[in-house]
Amino acid sequence: MATFTIEGKQFMYNGNPIRILSGAMHYFRIVPEYWKDRLLKLKACGFNTVETYVAWNMHEPKEGQYNFQGIADIEQFIQLAGEVGLHVIVRPSPYICAEWEFGGLPAWLLKDPSMQLRCYDQPYLSKIDAYFDELLPRLQPLLCTNGGPIIAMQIENEYGSYGNDKEYLAYVRQAMIKRGMDVLLFTSDGYDDANLQGGTLIPDVLATVNFGSRPEEAFDKLQEYQPDKPLVCMEYWNGWFDHWGDEHHVRGFDDVVDVLDRMLQMGASVNFYMFHGGTNFGFYNGANYLGKYEPTATSYDYHALLSESGDITDKYIAVRELISKYVDMTGLELPPPIRKKHYGNIRLTEKARLFESLDSLSAPITSKCTATMEQLDQDYGFILYSTQISGPRAKHKIVLQHVHDRALIFLDGVYQGVVERNTHDQTLEIKVNDILAEIPPEGATLSILVENMGRINYGYSLKDPKGITEGVRFERMFLYDWTIHTLPLDDLSRLNFGEQQADGSYTPTFYKGEFHVDEIGDMFLKLEGWTKGVAYLNGFNLGRYWEIGPQKTLYIPGPLLREGANEVIIFELHGTRDPVVTLQDFAELG
Q: Which residue, 215, 216, 217, 224, is CA-closest to 207?
């Protein structure tokens, strides 16, 4: 058993003063085989603590069905941290932000359109209680009060940037306490008045602040509200994340070290966000919406101290040098770098067209109206809507009301164009051979393939159902009688692939190829000449790619490979002239 307490402006661990030097890394963004490597690199940098969020949607993907295996084995991650000599800060709030899909909330919450999020609303609170009943007993043996490494836990995340329901915050706090979470509890928020007034439970709960610069200003404001407690920067933003279409964010190490040094001179405790970002594998990237929908890229490199693939950076070296002035670094040696491999170009020789493979991927659902993914118990991936337009009809536009997030339109199987969420009117003229088309007397089949590009993870637009949210109009007339295929694309094993045949047409297609591995190591999948889609390696969803960047490669951790034959499947939405991918030994970001 151990104690982690506050005495005045000082943290105490087992009665001795301690300054927390922490780094954030998320177990769910790192393959489990690499957890220990990343934790050892954190410790070797002079840090004494690791911090992680807990992603509710990772642990309860379907309501009442829980997952704590593999990359979701949070208990093993925390135990490993303790074994290498690190304290642990856990942030198990129902909501985590984190640029993670829906801020960590499970998609099934949105099946009930009346569900109120992040407030004292009983239907929402009952879902939290059920989740906490499963999660928190797993964490209880790992608390420092029970001999484990967990020293502190967060009760909500940056709540002041969302709401001011103190009754809700108190409820979550009490829900943790009554389930045995008897370690230090805290909140974290931005440091302006609105955030600190809305998001804290001062004086009953320690308040911490998040920022990337101007530490004196931030801590001065915190002390206006909380003058008698330790100074803590719970998120020191030493880098930043990327949206698709952005430039890759870079922050120089000189600036990072300067701000850190100023905080340490003030006696503050610091948690780097991020120390190691990792990867938004699968469909777990989030998105922002502050007047414009902006999905986050697959890479969560964050320009952090460790790269996406866990490599030491110049920022790591500079921070380590500074920390050595405050911490005894004796015996803290760096683990060896992880091997990188280059296998060159791989030709994908087989393909399966989406429209010809629907029966292998999904059972059709008939519906009078369009329905969202959540209404059909789908969480991630794509959804296909099809209906008949009777003819003859004059030349008109198709109007999507509204699309979340990106739709490909087909008329009788012929690609017509893209409608994106940020398009102002969300309309598309139906054309044949670039001529605005009439619907012939026999009618035509309209098909709309919608991609969920990530639910919003921050701000006032958290309620973000996916698919076509209201309906589809042919000019002013709403269209009814739809056939819908849910396409989560979480199991491609039933696809029937055939040999490639060049026919010049572009339609959403799965491409498959194999390559042989003699020696396992990390690699990066480059998709030059491809447009947009999803990549799989031995059945594991590596994430999305998009030619607009900034990332040009997808990270392949070595443990996903196997000696001998390995399989690559690419789901390409728009087509490629040459189905070749490159497996190289370096990342390309920006």
A: 224
Contact of 449 with 508, CB cutoff 8 Å: yes
DSSP state of 304: -
3-state secondary structure 37-85: HHHHHHHHCCCCEEEEECCHHHHCCECCECCCCHHHCHHHHHHHHHHCC
Verify whether residue 374 is a known catalytic residue.
no
Residue 341 in tokens: 């491999």
What pLDDT is recorded for position 432? 56
pLDDT, position 315? 98
Residue 46, SS3?
coil
18, β-bridge pairs: 11
CA gap 176, 179 in Å, rounded: 5
Within 10 angstroms of residue 68's Cβ, the number of other Cβ atoms is: 14
Q: Which two tokens stand for residue 461?
A: 């637009």
Q: Which residues contact 174 (CB under 8 A, 6 or more apart)?
A: none
- Report yes or no: 513 and 537 within 8 Å, Cβ to Cβ: no
Q: Which of 69, 90, 66 is nearest to 78 (CA)?
A: 90
CA angle 207, 212, 217 (to 5 degrees): 65
Cα 249 to Cα 9: distance, rounded to the nearest angstrom? 35
Instruction: Determine the pLDDT at residue 103.
Output: 98
Exactly one of 101, 235, 451, 572 is catalytic; name it: 235
Task: Give the model's pLDDT for residue 395.
Answer: 78
Cα distances (angstroms) measured from residue 484 to each of 274, 325, 359, 363, 368: 40, 62, 12, 9, 10
Domains, the chain, ranges and CATH? 4-323 (3.20.20.80), 344-350+495-584 (2.60.120.260), 358-487 (2.60.120.260)
CA dist list (Å): 367 to 376, 389, 580: 10, 16, 39
Tokens of 464: 């973000």
Closest Cα partner for 581 from 298, 347, 342? 347
Place of tokens 């040094």: 261
Q: Sign of the CA dihedral 112, 118, 119, 123? A: positive
Q: Which of 51, 60, 99, 158 is catalytic?
A: 158
Q: What CA–CA distances, in Å, run from 563 to 309, 338, 558, 568?
A: 20, 17, 10, 14
Supply 328's token pair.
Answer: 């005894």
pLDDT along the chain (590 residues), means of 10: 96 98 98 98 98 98 98 98 98 96 98 97 98 98 98 98 98 98 98 98 97 98 98 98 97 98 98 98 97 97 98 98 96 92 96 96 98 98 97 87 95 92 77 66 95 97 97 93 98 92 77 96 97 98 98 98 98 95 96
Active site residue 158: yes
Please measure the distance between the N-terminal and C-terminal CA atoms of the chain and give it in whole angstroms: 48
Residues constituting the chain: 590
Number of DSSP helices (H) and strands (E) in the chain, helices first: 10, 36
